[in-house]
Design brief:
The protein has 36 helices and 2 strands. By secondary structure, the protein is mainly alpha-helical. Among the domains are: 69 residues; 34 residues, no CATH class. It has a two-stranded antiparallel sheet. It is elongated. This is Crooked neck-like protein 1.
């Protein structure tokens, strides 16, 4: 029993044991002593022992071919060719599929110049194992080395009947070319191409390299017509289903070498139009190089356009709803293509309708329709198709959720250009009925104004104001229309209706327009009345200043007292205003007026009313209620407010008394300072 089961401190591995055994040469046996044979009897005895050893090894395991080969090679070394041949034959009976055995057997016969025996072995080998290419290569090479060209050709022909792989055919062709048999090589190429064509009928992706090699073979031997014919047959054979860019690149380069530049250009364009863009990168690159070498400016531009078209196709294929890519693509197509191609691209683009019925997703998409309609009208000059485009777009839009006023207006303007006014009015009327919008009303009114149809304008304004009574601009435009037409009472009635609306988007603009209207009509009493009505609604400082300036601008004798009276009223009304800046603005306007038109007494009075500007500090608080520091700001103290509030005067006197007290205490604390001051 082992008490200490812990591992030893020094571990010995199996690799270490083997290394030490090799270093110490523990397993090496001493070489057997060299034996010198001196007579025939000893030689026969040696042969007997050796053969017995070989036969014993073969009996132990007949399938180990290396034992047979060693046995045969030993007999061959003794020049016992017949015995070696017998051993090889016995071995072939055991395993006739062993390639090495056939090769060793034939090599032995060739080394010993037994040509007929070697031919016999090669014939048996290629008959037994016809798919082993090595036998055929060795056999044909042997016949060629012996100068038996006809025999070698006969072996090649037997080989070709088995329809071997590509390299075998090229070996046969190279064999014929070595003996200048070009016609025979051409016939072999023809047979091989036909064989490959039949085989490739069942392939998904046929290979073009054999056709290219055949054509280059013809070109190399200066049979240019034959080479062109081969390329044309290849193009016809592969058709449009299995087009390969390598075939067209090779064909184009061949024609380029023959200085047939127009044929080259046709080949490249034919291929680029039919091969998928992602499979034609090399083709496009070679076409670009060709045009740069031999083409003109137009050809190079065509190449660039083709490349950009490919890029845009990839972009829209990756994301069909990328409308910016469609715009770029259409701009490119419109610049250099026929109308049918442009229409096709437009149809593809507008087919990508936004999946969500929200206006923000349609804003870019709608411009595809607009550009399409403009192209049909301006470029293609097809008014009928333009009308169809507009109508199709308007049918597509979900008007119950949203619409695009620009489409309706563009359609109406198009119909007017076609001198079809009823259709334009019908379109705009339909738009207002289906989906009324401010822009639609404005566009329709603008159209009728240009046509001088004022009754229609009035009706449209009425509909517009029923739809949007809070729109001050519409009220103003309606009143301006009536003013232009000379119907002042209607204009005034419109303004009165407008200011009586409970809700307006820009009431100050409306009131200003109404006041300006009355001033233009020189109805000053009505203008004053309007100002007073406005001041009942708002006490804004700008209204008071505007009223004062109005009073200053009208009348001759009473204008200054009236203006000063307005300022007086405004000042009284603004005392309760919390915004002190507005009150300051009023006083500054009043002072400007007095400086220009007032007397010294009025000027002195307004100077006394001007406030004092002082700097103050106030505490700031953050959103969470914490202390955010102090802020300095300017405040205004008006003399009128100070006089009305005696507490403020008392507070100022208290601050002055406290300051005097502090100065007297400081003097008492520092008597030397008083002495120095008295001496000085």
């Amino acid at each position: 029993q082992v008490k200490n089961k812990a591992p030893a401190e020094v571990q010995i591995t199996a690799e270490q044991l083997l290394r030490e055994a090799k270093e110490r040469e523990l397993e090496l046996l001493p070489p057997p002593p060299q034996q010198k044979i001196t007579d025939v009897e000893e030689l026969n005895d040696y042969k007997l022992r050796k053969r017995k050893t070989f036969e014993d090894n073969i009996r132990k395991n007949r399938t180990v071919i290396s034992n047979w080969i060693k046995y045969a090679q030993w007999e061959e070394s003794l020049k016992e060719i017949q015995r070696a041949r017998s051993i090889y034959e016995r071995a072939l009976d055991v395993d006739y599929r062993n390639v090495t055995l056939w090769l060793k057997y034939a090599e032995m016969e060739m080394k010993n110049r037994q040509v007929n025996h070697a031919r016999n072995i090669w014939d048996r080998a290629i008959t037994t194992l016809p798919r082993v290419n090595q036998f055929w290569y060795k056999y044909t090479y042997m016949e060629e080395m012996l100068g038996n060209v006809a025999g070698s050709r006969q072996v090649f022909e037997r080989w070709m009947e088995w329809q071997p792989e590509e390299q075998a055919w090229h070996s046969y062709i190279n064999f014929e070319l070595r003996y200048k048999e070009v016609d025979r090589a051409r016939s072999i190429y023809e047979r091989y191409i036909l064989f490959r064509a039949l085989a490739e009928l069942v392939l998904i992706h046929p290979d073009v390299k054999n056709w290219i090699k055949y054509a280059r073979f013809e070109e190399k031997h200066s049979y240019f017509a034959h080479a062109r014919k081969v390329y044309e047959r290849a193009v016809e054979f592969f058709g449009e289903e299995h087009m390969d860019e390598h075939l067209y690149v090779a064909f184009a380069k061949f024609e380029e070498n023959q200085k047939e530049f127009e044929r080259v250009r046709v080949i490249y364009k034919y291929a680029l139009d039919r091969i998928p863009k992602q499979d034609a990168q090399n083709l496009f690159k070679n076409y670009t190089i060709f045009e740069k070498k031999f083409g003109d400016r137009r050809g190079i531009e065509d190449i660039i356009v083709s490349k950009r078209r490919f890029q845009y196709e990839e972009e829209v294929k990756a994301n069909p709803h990328n409308y910016d890519a469609w715009f770029d693509y259409l701009r490119l197509v419109e610049s250099d293509t026929d109308a049918e191609t442009v229409r096709e691209v437009y149809e593809r683009a507008i087919a990508n309708v936004p999946p969500i019925q929200e206006k923000r997703h349609w804003k870019r998409y709608i411009y595809l329709w607009i550009n399409y309609a403009l192209y049909e009208e301006l470029e293609a000059k097809a008014s009928k198709r333009t009308r169809q485009v507009y109508q199709a777009c308007l049918e597509l839009l979900p008007h119950k959720k949203f619409t695009f006023a620009k489409m309706w207006l563009l359609y109406a303007q198009f119909e007017i250009r076609q001198k079809n006014l009823p259709l334009a009015r019908r379109a705009l009327g339909t738009s207002i009925g289906k989906c009324p919008k401010n822009k639609l009303f404005k566009g329709y009114i603008e159209l009728e104004l240009q046509l001088r149809e004022f009754d229609r304008c009035r009706k449209l304004y009425e509909k517009f104001l029923e739809f949007a009574p809070e729109n001050c601009t519409s009220w103003i435009k309606f009143a301006e229309l009536e003013t232009i037409l000379g119907d002042i009472d209607r204009a005034r009635a419109i303004y009165e209706l407008a200011i009586s609306q409970p809700r307006l988007d820009m009431p100050e603009v409306l009131w200003k327009s109404y006041i300006d209207f009355e001033i233009e009509q020189e109805e000053y009493e009505k203008t004053r009345s309007l100002y007073r009505r406005l001041l009942q609604r708002t006490q804004h400082v700008k209204v008071w200043i505007s009223l004062a300036q109005f009073e200053l601008s009208v009348g001759q004798k009473e204008r200054l007292p009236r203006c000063r009276q307005v300022y007086e009223e405004a000042n009284k009304a603004m005392r309760s205003c919390e915004e002190k800046e507005e009150r300051v603005m009023l006083l500054e306007s009043w002072r400007s007026f007095e400086e220009e038109f007032g007397t010294s007494a009025t000027k002195e009075r307004i100077d006394k009313l001007m406030p004092e500007k002082i700097k103050k500090r106030r505490k700031l608080q953050a959103e969470d209620g914490s202390d955010a520091g102090w802020e300095e700001y300017y405040d205004y103290i008006f003399p009128e407010d100070t006089a009305n509030q005696p507490n403020l005067k008392l507070l100022a006197m208290a601050k002055l008394w406290k300051k005097q007290q502090q100065e007297s205490e400081a003097a008492a604390m520092d008597p030397d300072k008083d002495i120095d001051e008295s001496q000085t």
